[in-house]
Amino acid sequence: MSLHDLRLYLVIGLAIVLTGCIDGNQSTEPYNRLIWNRENALAGNGEVDKGPWFEWWYYKVILPDTGDAFYFVYGVVNPWDYDNTLPASRAYVGFGDFATGEQLHETCPVSEFTAAYDRTDITIASHRATDTAISGSLVQDGHEASWDITINRLWDFNAMGWGMFVPEMSNIYWYPAQAAARFSGTIVHDGRRYDFENVPGYQDRNWGRSFPKWWAWITANHFEGHPDTVLAAGGGQPTLLGGINGLEGLVIGLKHGGKEYVFRPNDGDLQRITVDFGTWQILAVNREGYTVEINAYAPCDSFMDIPFMTPDNILFHDYETLTGTIEVKLYERDGCRDRLVGKLLSDFGGIEYGSADIAFDDCYESEAKVLFDNFNRD
């Protein structure tokens, strides 16, 4: 992204603020609830948004004592399409065990999906998800999984800033509604039972009209010696305002020592993101004089290909691990030099790269790719 593109971000934001389209102080709580058709429903006008649409609620949990990690996803594509007129239309629930690589999915008609506008409450067939609990059970190809988990939220992060409050600003939105949480409960997978209490967990949200060209995601909330430190970073190359392409970037939120450090391209912060698939390197500098360096690594065989179907029936490959190694260095500008504020390490990091244009073999390539760089560019 060039400086021209960066200025475009800022001009868009300034125009929106000056026209009074957003209130930067509004609550983020509604964005963990159903988004689709909300304005029509709240207005009671009887209209229904029948454009392409997707949204999902994604949960992950890690068990530090054993190294096990699991994901759960509850989602819907084209929620208006009760007659199944489009091939991508569906409600679905997914489960993944990163230790075994096993994934189970159940696809249901859209009619079996319900969600609330006034609270986080999703039901798909017999499966349920809220912001305080998730439950479900799946059987597929001779494999079984069930879960019953309670959730204690610790920190949410408004990754998109003012952009989250602007309808149709982006073709995809991301909100780490529970960037840090603690999970307690039971998971049973193929007869093996996992009981846990107060272990690191996470929950985020995605919704929108279509998928980006690519996305990347790095999270951790179990750092050695720093139990209250949280990292949530994510971004990609979306389409903005229905037709602006080529703008890209990664939002970074770091909570450390009781303070939040935020790095956003739409706020004018500088970033460089380099991916060698299994290795992520990020450098970011914000307007407050802080610099963050993030190095994330995971072996290729630790990634799972989690499939997501776009509203226009294109299969999106999301390669993810929850047991990556993440090193974070945070610096504060002190006169003419940068002073190290914290050096952080986690062996339970979520690392992911997604696109419709990649295959798993890409993980074994040695070529590093600079996904985004707005340092030293005109």
Radius of gyration: 20 Å
Instruction: Give the overall average pLDDT.
Output: 90
Distance between the termini: 9 Å
Query: SS-based structural class?
Result: mainly beta
User: Any idea what the shape is?
Assistant: globular
Helix share, percent:
under 10%
Total helical segments: 2
Strand content: over 45%
Helix and strand pattern: HHEEEEEEEEEEEEEEEEEEEEEE
Major beta sheet, specifics? 11 strands, antiparallel
Low-confidence stretches: 14-20
- Give the spatial strand order of the biggest sheet: 4-3-2-1-11-10-9-8-7-6-5
Characterise the protein shown here.
The structure is a single chain. It is built from two helices and 22 strands. It has about 375 residues and is mainly beta. It has one domain. An eleven-stranded antiparallel beta sheet has the order 4-3-2-1-11-10-9-8-7-6-5, with no helix packed on it. Strands 12, 13, 14, 15, 16, 17, 18, 19, 20, 21 and 22 form an eleven-stranded antiparallel beta sheet that branches. Strand 14 and strand 15 form a beta hairpin. The protein is globular, with a radius of gyration of 20 Å. About 0% of the residues have low confidence.
Topology of helices and strands:
Blueprint: H1 3-18, H2 38-43, E1 54-63, E2 68-77, E3 90-97, E4 102-108, E5 113-115, E6 121-124, E7 127-130, E8 133-140, E9 143-155, E10 172-189, E11 192-208, E12 214-220, E13 230-236, E14 249-256, E15 259-263, E16 270-275, E17 279-285, E18 290-297, E19 304-309, E20 315-334, E21 337-355, E22 369-373
Antiparallel strand pairs: 1-2, 1-11, 2-3, 3-4, 5-6, 6-7, 7-8, 8-9, 9-10, 10-11, 12-13, 12-21, 13-14, 14-15, 16-17, 16-22, 17-18, 18-20, 19-20, 20-21
